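From the shared-data thread, chain only:
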Amino acid sequence: MKVKVDQPYTLAELKTKLESAFPEYTFKFRGPKVLVIGHGKVGGAQIVGEKQGRVNLVEGFPTMGGQMLFMLSVLLLGILIPFIVYLTAFKPKQVKVRDAVANFIREEYGTGAIKKQTANDLLDEAVTV
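Structure, as tokens:
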């Protein structure tokens, strides 16, 4: 996910702000250009690189061991079974972490958080018009 930002940032500065905003998450660098955000052993996201005007935020496993274990299951069980397990068990937790961090970055550096519309909000708008 690409998050547009108006202000310049560095990963080190972003890490300290995220640590104060999300004490339940773990933050660590994987190399000089990747900041890994973890929530447990499954839910996580990665901020890749320092681009001017945007932040590249990708959901994924927060540990190398989790990534390797998932790839081993793909090799042993084929593609279909691990893919279904990934979409039902792992992906929702990763997207939750990614969206929380993206909304924080939008509030701090960008134009503000995006409010998700629910089905009821859409129905209320259709009725009032």
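The CA atoms of residues 26 and 38 lie 5 Å apart.
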